[in-house]
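User: Hey, quick favor. My workstation is busy. Could you predict this chain's structure for me?
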Amino acid sequence: LDRRFNIATRAGYHCAALVHRFLGTVEFGGTLRISLGYFNEKREIEYFIESLKSIVF
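Assistant: No problem, here it is.
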């Protein structure tokens, strides 16, 4: 997402390894985290969703 779409994200365990064991995401290397702020606009969120879809599907 960062290189192709200029969207900053973070992947991993996010200092919560036990939670990832419970969720069963350890084998996948954790989860993907995005952070939204007060000033994010609807179009930016839609852009993220469409960008993610293009990678996943």
